[in-house]
Amino acid sequence: MNGIEARGLTCRRGFATLFRDVAFRVADGECLAVRGPNGSGKTTLLRCAAGLTRADAGEVTRSGALLYAGHLPGIKDDLTAEENLRGALALRGCPASADAIREALGEAGLGKRRMLPARRLSAGQRRRIGLARLMLDPAPLWILDEPLTALDDEGCALFSRLAGAHLDRGGVMLAATHHDLAAARTRELRLA
Description:
This protein folds into 2 domains: 1-64 and 140-192, Rossmann fold (3-Layer(aba) Sandwich); 81-138. By secondary structure, it is an alpha/beta fold. The chain contains 5 helices and 8 strands; from the N terminus they run βββαββαααβαββ.
């Protein structure tokens, strides 16, 4: 079984309490969308869930390998789309063949741009490198911060297909978003 569970999470920044006593459980085949206005703590909550930020109170338990993608695309400007994807996968210990990388970038709409330095790609094209990563990384637990940012309608549709296939395989997804994820089995957690 894969999943993530949070109990009594509280996080403060200075004198401000971002959230208090947050609890949730996301199991195989489920998606939880964290919603709320800017500054409500969505990113902080995801970072706590991923183990990247310590909460002031509460605990998080995870089972299954974790893929975390922050709200910035995490792309190196001097590397090509292909090199960025290969490097991201290698850092996670899941190398892919050159053919698999080319195929994923092609499916993500970057086939003709795979050898361009990332600095020459648009924001949406840079995001599509992340979509290709979702195709090749076998992690069952996805924690994604604003995965639809800068994507056009076609990119959003591709993300929806990838998310649906991930959930159909029993994967788990926790995502902070201002957009409708259009994924079946999505519940919402609202932060004030």
